[in-house]
Amino acid sequence: MSLPIQAAGLRRSFGDLVAVDGVDLEVREGEIFGFLGPNGAGKSTTVRMLTTLLRPTGGWARVAGHDVVTDADLVRRSIGVALQDAAIDPLMTGNELLRLQATLHGIGRIEAKRRGAELLERVGLTAAGDRRVGGYSGGMRRRLDLALSLVHAPAVLFLDEPTTGLDPMSRIALWEEVRSLNAENGTTVLLTTQYLEEADQLAGRIAIIDRGRIVSEGTPQTLKAQVGAPTLVLRVDAGHRDEARAVLSGRFGTERPAPTPEAIAVGLDGGAGAVADVVRVLDELGAELEAMELHEPSLDDVFAEATGRRLEGAEEATTDGDDEGGTEPAAEGRRGRRRRGGTS
Predict the structure, then answer these.
(1) Closest by alpha carbon to 122, among 96, 149, 97?
(2) Residue 159: which of 188, 134, 183, 120 has the closest Cα?
(3) How many CB atoms lie within 10 A of CB 221?
(4) CA quadruple 232, 237, 239, 240: dihedral positive or negative?
(5) What is the pLDDT of residues 263-309, one digit of tens each?
(6) How do residues 197-252 score in pLDDT, each as one tens digit?
(7) Dist. CA 6–CA 66, nearest whole Å
(8) Nearest CA-CA partner of 5 in 65, 48, 55
(9) How many CB atoms lie under 10 A from the CB of residue 248?
């Protein structure tokens, strides 16, 4: 399976509202692919089409080698899905839910018990396995939801904003689980997120979606490099400031707006490796270097370059570990209860 996820011209409208407008995707086997964009951009609607929860109104998609419309049952058997609106029965325990999920996949009792114990250990919930889920924190529920999506060892895993509403420590713990799963099992992961750091940390390649269309795609490093050179911001003694500004901008790159009048900001056309040369030039001028910071282009800069606006709230993280995350606008097409891969 060279391309576990393929889509061409994928489209979904709700009446006159076009939520996804001609999305083309190719996700390679064994990679973590990030789908980055603000709320309402079309991320979750795209995932719902790829996981057979929504029927496309245009285009086509294949997941795990199967068409999402004509082979929907085969797609569901091949994928794991953890959507952001997790509907986990609060009266059941973690072990009970894992056994139920295994039964739905036709897994025998002995094997189901073994897999349940293994998965609870993987996500750090062994001690909480016999507790009712209603008493779990938000981070614990998200980790249990990840375990449930892995019961049948899917080849392709969809994670739809898995860390929305989690505290920073729970978010980092879930990141580690995703990395480990991908590295150890070679699981292909499509991750949707509105968090820039999450996409940067986890994804080998990303696609940025805005208003239902993909506006940029590539590795985080490549996309950031396309925006421009890193910016070096420094301060030197007042007596050498003007001379240093003229020499540095003439030798290393274009002068850029500085955060304060006392600072010098210059784009390093030669990349971050030119910092040592900058220090050497300042030493030759006899300038005293008081402070220096290197600012690399960010994914927010990439988004701004592609759309003309910033990804508002992309760096915000709630500190309430029991919050299950925010709401999505109607454009995201939330319909009915969530389902995991393999259930009908």
Answers:
(1) 149
(2) 188
(3) 12
(4) negative
(5) 999 988 888 889 999 999 999 999 999 999 998 888 888 888 888 77
(6) 899 999 999 999 999 999 999 999 899 888 888 889 999 999 999 999 999 988 99
(7) 10
(8) 65
(9) 25
Residue 157 pLDDT greater than 50, yes or no: yes
Of 184-188, 218-222, 309-313, minimum mean pLDDT range: 309-313
Q: Which residue has the tokens 């139920």?
A: 100
| Predicted TM-score of the model (pTM) | 0.76
Cα radius of gyration rounded to whole Å, the chain? 24
What amino acid is encoded at 185 in this protein?
N
